[in-house]
Design goal:
Blueprint (H helix, E strand, L loop, with lengths): L1 H29 L11 E2 L2 E2 L7 H144 L12 H4 L5 H18 L12 E7 L5 E9 L1 H13 L7 H7 L1 E6 L3
Antiparallel strand pairs: 1-2, 3-4, 3-5
Length: about 300
């Protein structure tokens, strides 16, 4: 501040001093008399009133003006500084308010962003849970439907297989019965022809009263041996799962032709289930041909059949 003030004061002072010097010289020259002293104090016979300027007064006046100027400049500077201070304070306040507003806006934006992200996450989680639940329910429904379809298919296949097996068994049984009936019919024709040829010797049951004569030349051992062969032939066709019929007995009456062909078989007592299976096995059995001397003894025989 002092350097600036000096720079402002130096030039006016110098100019004032120069002007005052010039003025003093001019005034002094006018009052110098010529050689005869006639013109001293006058110009062309006219008197000139001399005006004297006191340099100290001018300097004092200049100093007052300069001081007033300095005071004005100080006042201006103070007002400027105060104004700058106010402007600075206003700027700082505005900056603070701006920073606070930006901070509040940033916090609000962050809060809104966090809330939006939370809402989006909750929505995504809910949608995911709903999708997983729907997928699980769909999978369970599809699995149940597949299991039901598989069960229905298996049941249908089982029923079809059982029906086919039953139909096959029935067809085989019917075919076997038909074949047996055909054999019996054929054998009956042969027996009829044989009876006609032999005079009725092979028809009917053996005479009890003449049993001893009819067994002439046939031992009990031979009869038992033949019956054992017949039982083995029936056992070969008999099915006894898990020894179901162990210890059970069925009495069978069997009628055969001279070549061993089965003519008829009936049950005469015993376990009903065993008799049913035994009759079926006898119809399928291949009964050995008896010797001619045994035929009259075995053409109608009774056997107590027991499964092996």
């Amino acid at each position: 501040m002092s350097n600036k003030l000096r720079s402002k004061l130096s030039l006016p002072v110098i100019i004032s001093i120069i002007l005052h010097g010039i003025l003093i010289i001019v005034l002094g020259y006018q009052f110098i008399p010529d050689d005869n002293g006639e013109n001293y104090g006058s110009i062309n016979g006219n008197s000139i009133d001399a005006i004297m300027i006191d340099p100290s007064v001018m300097t004092e006046q200049y100093q007052r003006q300069l001081q007033a100027q300095v005071n004005q400049e100080k006042a201006n500077q103070q007002r400027q500084e105060q104004l700058d201070k106010q402007v600075k304070e206003l700027a700082e306040k505005a900056e603070a308010e701006k920073a606070a507003a930006e901070k509040a806006a940033a916090e609000k934006a962050a809060a809104e962003k966090a809330a939006a992200e939370k809402a989006a996450a909750e929505k995504a989680a809910a949608e995911k849970a709903a999708a997983e639940k729907a997928a699980a329910e769909k999978a369970a429904a599809e699995k149940a439907a597949a299991e039901k379809a598989a069960a229905e298919k298996a049941a249908a296949e089982k029923a079809a297989a059982e029906k086919a097996a039953a139909e096959k068994a029935a067809a085989e049984k019917a075919a076997a019965e038909k074949a047996a009936a055909a054999k019996r019919a054929e054998q009956a024709k042969k027996d009829k022809a044989l009876n006609e040829l032999l005079g009725g010797l092979t028809s009917g049951s053996p005479d009890v009263s003449g049993g001893a004569a009819s067994r002439k030349g046939v031992s009990d051992g031979e009869l038992n041996k033949y019956r054992s062969l017949v039982q083995n032939a029936i056992s070969n066709k008999f099915i006894n799962p898990q020894n179901l019929y162990r210890g059970k007995t069925c009495t069978l009456q069997i009628q055969i032709a001279p070549d061993g062909l089965l003519l008829n078989v009936t049950s005469k007592g015993g376990d009903a289930d065993l008799c049913r299976e035994a009759l079926a096995a006898t119809k399928l059995a291949v009964i050995p041909k008896p010797s001619s001397k045994l035929y009259n003894e075995v053409k109608t025989m009774t056997i107590d059949f027991q499964p092996k």
